[in-house]
Amino acid sequence: MQETTTKIKIKTYYELTKPKIWYLLVFTAFGTAITASNIYNIEISIATWALMLFGVAAGSASANTLTNYHDRDIDEVMERTKGRPIPSKRIFPAEKARDFGLVLAGISIACAFGIAFTTSFWNGMWCGIFMVFGLADNILIYSHALKRKSQLNIILGGFSGGAPAMIGYAAVTLTGLWDFGLIMAGLVFIWIPMHIWALTLHFRDDYQKVKVPMLTAVLSEKTSARVIAATTVMMVVFSIVPFFLTTDTGEPVMSEVYLYTAIASGVLMVALSAWVVSKPTEKASWVLFKFSSPYLAVLFIALMVDSAL
Ligand code: HEM
Ligand SMILES: CC(C)=CCC/C(C)=C/CC/C(C)=C/COP(=O)(O)OP(=O)(O)O
Predict the structure, then answer these.
(1) Is 90 exceeded by the pLDDT of residue 307?
(2) Which of 20, 32, 238, 255 has its Cα between 20 and 30 A from that of 162?
C-alpha cells in the first residue's frame, strides 16, 4: 500500500533526529534514575518520568537535528552521511530542519524545568541547567566550535554525553548528585573516546576528505589503534569505580554483581581493542565500535539491577 506523504514526512523527520543515538542517551537517563531511586528508596512519579524521558529524548533529538543542520555541507560529501535527510534533499529547504530542531530544544528545556513541579523546585532547576548545558556543549562547543578545528573535539564536546545521566539523577534526588550522579555521568563521558575514535578510524578517509580532524583520522593507523586501546583500558578501569562508592551512612551502593559485570564486559572490550592494535584494519575498529553501545547499556543495566538487590 502506498505510504501517505504525511507518513513519509514523519519518518524522515524522525530519521533526522538519529534515533539510534538518542535511544541510548535516554536509556542512560532511565538507568541513572532507577539506580538513584533504588539507592535512596524514592518513588518516581509518572509525571516526573514523562518530563524526564520525553525531555531527554527531545533534547538529544534537538541536538542531533541542529548538528545535522550545521554539518549539512560536509554530510553531503561523506559516504557515511550523504544519504541523510538534509544532504539528500528529502528535507528541503534545510531551514525546515533547523526550525524543527529549535522547537525540540524549547520543548526539552521546558520539560526539564517542569520537573520543578513534579519533584521539587531545585530538582527541576538542576534538570533545566543540565539540559541547557547538554544542548550548548553538543551544538555550540562540539559541532560549531571544535569539530572542524581540534583533534580533541570530542573531549570538550563530550561533556554533553553525560547530561542525560545527570538529568535522570537530578529528576529523582539531589542527594549524591555530585558524587554518585557524577560518576554515572562520567561512565558515559569516558566511554565516548573509545566509541567515536573506533568509528573514525574505520571512516578515516571520509573524515580526511572533509578535513574534520578526528584524532584517529589524523594520526597513523598504528598510533590510532594504540590510542583507542588506551582509552578502552581507561574506560574499563573507571567502570569499576561505582563498586567502591558508599552512601553517607557508609553503605556500599554496589555489590559484586555490578563489579563482575563491569569486569567481564570490560575484558571483552579490552580484548577487542587489542585486536585493533594487532590488526588496525577497518573491520576490527568497526567491530569495536559496534560493541561500544551494547557495552555501555550493559553497565547501566548492571547499575539498575545491583541497586535493586
Ligand atoms: C561527542 C560525542 C559523540 C560523538 C562525536 C559521537 C559520534 C557518533 C557517530 C559519528 C556515530 C555514527 C552515526 C552514523 O553513522 O549514523 C555514532 C553512533 C552512535 N552513537 Fe555516538 N557520538 C558521541 C556520543 C555519544 C553518546 C554520549 C551516546 C549515548 C550515550 C552515543 C550513542 C551512539 C549510538 C547508540 C550510536 C549508534 C551505534 C551503532 O550504530 O551501533 N554517542 N556516534
Ligand atoms: C541532554 C542533551 C541535550 C544531551 C545531548 C547529548 C548528545 C545529543 C550527544 C550526542 C553526541 C553525538 C552522537 C554526536 C554526533 O557527532 P557528529 O555530529 O560528529 O556525528 P555525525 O558525523 O554522524 O554527524
Answers:
(1) yes
(2) 255
256: closest CA among 238, 270, 266, 244?
Answer: 244
Name the CATH topology of 1-175: Tetracycline Repressor; domain 2 (1.10.357)
Tell how far CA 242 is from the center of its chain.
19
C-alpha cell read off for 51: 518530563
Cβ-based neighbours of 112, under 8 Å, separated by 6 or more: 51, 52, 55, 59, 124, 127, 128, 130, 131, 167
| C-alpha of residue 138 to centroid of ligand 1, in Å | 12
Query: What would the pLDDT profile of 136-166 be if each residue is shown by its tens digit?
Result: 999 999 999 999 999 999 999 999 999 999 9
Rounded distance from Cα 288 to ligand 2 centre (Å): 19
Q: How far is the CA of 161 from the centre of ligand 2 (A)?
A: 8
pLDDT of amino acid 1: 61
Q: Is 59 in the pocket of ligand 1 (CB under 6 A)?
A: no
- Single pTM value for the model: 0.96
Nearest C-alpha to atom 18 of ligand 1 is from which residue?
21
Q: Report in angstroms the alpha-carbon separations of 122 from 1, 115, 118, 235.
A: 51, 9, 11, 31
CA of 190 to the centre of ligand 2 (A): 15
Q: Which atom of ligand 2 is nearest to the CA of 81?
A: 23
Contact 44, 33 (CB under 8 A): yes
CB atoms within 10 A of CB 275: 18
